Amino acid sequence: MGRSQLTTTDKINRLVANHFGNFRRSLMNLNERRAFDQLFAVAKNNRLAISQANDVLPIDAAQMAMLIDLQKQIDLLQQRLDEQT
Question: Which one of 49, 54, 55, 73 is most buried, counting C-beta atoms within 10 A?
């Protein structure tokens, strides 16, 4: 019988559990842990785009999704600043 492929969500969950578990646990500040969790929530919310990035490692695609979300937040804040001036 053939091996089944992991879903993108499974890949992201494994990244958090297997590769970043100790990193997350070592974050002493609760706000840092929340930020960590929020970043990986962004990755999970963009799992369709991540699944289309076949030529890159799952962590690279997840980080790109995180960066795009952060850029959107920066753009929104810049727009708010521009509206105030």
Answer: 49
